[in-house]
Amino acid sequence: MLSDLEIYAVVPASDLGRAREFYQDKLGLEPIEERREGLIYQGAGGTKFLLYETQFAGTAQNTAMNWATKDLDAEMSELRGRGVVFEDYDFPGFKTENGVLADDDGRAAWFKDSEGNILALSEGM
């Protein structure tokens, strides 16, 4: 049933115009479609996400969306060059170094968008 349906992420923005600029200028993404409810972006393999306006943006304290990459260092370098700042975390069993968590499953890094949403990149996970 649900396993046969397309999945897409939904990401909130308190200011859709500001968020659109962040996703364009910092992440290099352009929407493929503008709808009444927000902006549709498309990634590899037909994956998509909706960026929509709501007063509740940035309130979740968890990862909202992740991009899988084969070269985390290159992606981070490109994004840092565009002004993206990666988060550092230090929790029991979970510590990043220079923005990167490395464990037996792979490597990952987190950053926040203009709306306070936590986004991630992962390699080998």
UniProtKB/TrEMBL annotation:
Which Gene3D superfamilies does the record cross-reference, listed alphabetically?
A: 2,3-Dihydroxybiphenyl 1,2-Dioxygenase, domain 1
Protein's name in the database: VOC family protein
| InterPro entries per UniProt | Glyas_Bleomycin-R_OHBP_Dase, Glyas_Fos-R_dOase_dom, VOC_core
Organism, by scientific name, is: Aeromicrobium ginsengisoli
| PROSITE patterns found in the cross-reference section | VOC
VOC domain residues: 4-124
Which Pfam family is an annotated match for this chain, by its short name? Answer: Glyoxalase
